[in-house]
Amino acid sequence: MVIDIEHYKDLAQQKQKEHRKFLASLKKKAPKNLDKLVQEIHTEVFEEIDCRQCANCCKSLGPLFTEADIERISKAFRMKLSVFEGTYLRTDEDGDKVFQSMPCPFLGKDNLCSIYEMRPKACREFPHTDRKKIYQINHLTIQNTLICPAAYLFVEKLKERLG
User: Fold this and answer.
1) 3-class DSSP assignment, residue 100
2) pLDDT reading at 163 higher than 80
3) What's the DSSP call for residue 118?
4) What share of the chain is helix, strand, coil (3-state, %, to 5)?
5) Is 43 exposed, middle or buried (0-12, 13-18, 19+ CB in 10 A)?
6) pLDDT tens digits, 90-139
7) C-alpha distances in angstroms, 137 versus 71, 124, 130, 154?
8) Is 91 helix (H, G, I), strand (E, B) or coil?
9) CA distances (Å), 56 to each of 18, 32, 97, 136, 159, in order?
10) Which Pfam families match (predicted)?
11) Do the bridges between strand 89-91 and strand 97-99 make them parallel or antiparallel, or are there none, so unpaired?
């Protein structure tokens, strides 16, 4: 099943205000079972959405690389840290290490990650829809709905359940 990324982006743009208001309401008064509900919905959404049919995050978002990420990946490649960084990374305006360019150089034509087992922490955690106290990252969740169909569906399902 091919995922229509533009369709989800359009939906997310149309619902930005509504989603922002809903997520802000969770910050004011989070239900007691919110963390459990977040886990359930996250699992449900990823049974519907197959990231390998999308990979939009890998095509458009560059992850932040921690020093541990750089060490782990360069070691696996048998590259010196400086060579790995010089080949793949740059320092952005915030001083973070990110890819020199997108899409991700480790993304295959089949949308599979060639370094999946050792991928950066930011990639492992994206789109952050399984976080405890989800209301602490509302700004990130809103941003992610524009890029990730699963994040959009997550917010929609959460809104529906807590409606």
Assistant:
1) coil
2) no
3) G
4) 60, 5, 35
5) exposed
6) 999 999 999 999 999 999 999 999 999 999 999 999 999 999 999 999 99
7) 28, 16, 11, 14
8) strand
9) 23, 33, 20, 24, 24
10) CxxCxxCC
11) antiparallel
Write down the pLDDT at residue 84: 98
- What is the rounded (10 degree) CA torsion for 82, 60, 159, 154? -70
pLDDT average, residue stretch 26-41: 94
Would you mind telling me the total number of residues written for the chain in this entry? 163
- pTM attached to this predicted model: 0.93
Classify the C-alpha dihedral 14-18-21-25 as positive or negative.
Answer: negative
Structure tokens at 138: 């509302």
pLDDT reading at 1 higher than 90: no
96 within 8 A of 84, measured Cβ to Cβ: no
Helix (H) or strand (E) holding 74: helix 67-76
* Residue 146 pLDDT grade (very low, low, confident, very high; cuts 50, 70, 90): very high
d(CA 125, CA 152): 16
The mean pLDDT of the chain is 96
100 Cβ contact list (under 8 Å, min separation 6): 88, 89, 90
